[in-house]
Amino acid sequence: MPRTNGTTTNPTEVGTEQVTAFRVAAHHLHERMRGGSVPAAAGTCGLQDSPPGSALLALNARVDDVRPDALHDAVEDRSLFHTWAMRGAPSFVPTADLAVFTTGVLPTGEKARRRFVLGIEQALEWLEMSLEEATARTRSVVRDVLAGRRLAIDELGAELAQVIAGDLPDATRRTWESEGPYAKGQPLGEGVVHFCLRILTLELLVCFAHRDGRKLPFVLTEEWLADGPPQVDPEAARAEIARRYLRCYGPSTRTDLAGWLGIAPGDAQPWWSAIEDELTEVRVDGRRRWLLTDDLDALISPPRASGVRMLPPRDPLLQLRDRDTLVADPALQRRIWKTVGEPGAVLVDGRPAATWRPRKRGRTLSLTVEPFGQLTSAVRRGIEDESEAVAVLRGCTSVELDVGS
What does the alpha-carbon distance between residue 107 and residue 104 come to, in Å, rounded to a whole number? Predict the structure, then answer.
């Protein structure tokens, strides 16, 4: 197909049905992968684990025979890695692709990084300190504080802030130790350190160990990985994370890529430029979008999805920016994507057909399903089967299912 500067001279026209089918297949939601495919499932675009436990349910929607300890074991044998990634969210990614989901996400330059860690600006102004300086101070002491230990963010942040305070000028230290705007009783400097840890995580200096109850402790990456963190060219990492995005969410735009990464739209050019020669322009219901040229045939003739999947809140598929391609009705969008207390979504043959909410009572999991319309008896049986699997993964021995009419 003829192309000029990353666009086609006669763009291919596709509809939202094709786009949705293409994306569902890219997310491995058209049919489940065989057991043992945990790194492959996580490697498409990462498995966000916020709220905690959602990554395991997202994995279950993509891979057959998922066990409750599947992610724990994969992290233990180092085939998976638990880290902050896109949008600053804790995620499981393949260790082999670690740099893609960390180095590849981190913006370059002071201004872009300030926009990436939104909320730190006022604190830096009060301290008369740049983000680069705050991060450098945190970086310089984190090894001494964390070496040989596992500390949750509040513990780590408090200790780091206290050590940093000792090296600050008197006036700056007083501001650093005063109460900040982030949490009642929390010193300003401790809040700043929390922001800086997001950057140090993407620099592969620190990472997460196994969750301990509600605590997700940090460790030094060089202690967690026997061979230490990988060395990678940042530009190559940015190019690959942009490819991962387009394979899962294409056809798309530079602005939507920025939203998925968690960066400002105006800061996305380094990612887009890195793969611009690999892109082809397509029109989605008349709208101008771009796709990896190698994926054009798959977009034109995507496989059909079948079956029922129970997607957790913030499932990777639900992280798409152009929500109207998946759910056209704004009222239904508001039922799925909430600012607080998001439900899961029931996917039927590749399309959202209901929301679901769990409630755990002892060893019983109560699931409430609210359909968008009439459900067939086959779909209801599929929801029953999926609910039983979800209950096992949530550590329950029985499930109470309430499917609305």
Answer: 8
Amino acid at 230: P
Task: State which amino acid sits at residue 353.
Answer: A
List the beta bridge partners of residue 289.
282
Return the structure tokens found at 59.
């994995």
Listed by start position, the domains of the chain span 110-202, 326-403
By the 8 A CB rule, do 31 and 61 touch?
no
Contacts 24+ apart (CB under 8 A), 384-391: 385/308, 386/308, 386/309, 386/310, 386/346, 387/310, 389/60, 389/66, 390/57, 390/60, 390/310, 390/358, 390/365, 391/365, 391/367
Read off the pLDDT of residues 280-302 as tens digits, 9 standing for 90 and up.
999 999 999 999 999 999 999 99
List pLDDT tens digits, range 175-214: 999 999 999 999 999 999 999 999 999 999 999 998 887 8
- Look at residue 230 in the predicted model and tell me its pLDDT: 86
CB 33 within 8 A of CB 5: no
**181, 122 in Cβ contact below 8 A?**
yes
Q: Which two tokens stand for residue 227?
A: 């061979």
pTM of the model: 0.93
CA distance 278 to 292: 6
Burial label, 331 (beta-carbon count in 10 A; 0-12, 13-18, 19+): exposed
Whole-number Å distance between alpha carbons of 371 and 318 = 17
CA dist 302 and 23 (Å) reads 9
The predicted-structure confidence for 147-157, as pLDDT tens digits, reads as follows: 999 999 999 99
Name the residue among 170, 143, 173 with its Cα closest to residue 161.
173
DSSP string, 45-103: T-EE--STTHHHHHHHTTBSS--TTHHHHHHHTTSEEEEE-GGG-EEEEEGGGHHHHTT
Q: Count of CB atoms within 10 A of residue 181's CB?
A: 12
Asked if 217 and 152 count as a contact pair (C-beta separation under 8 A), the reply is yes
290: tokens are 């771009």
Match 């301290």 to its residue by tokens: 127
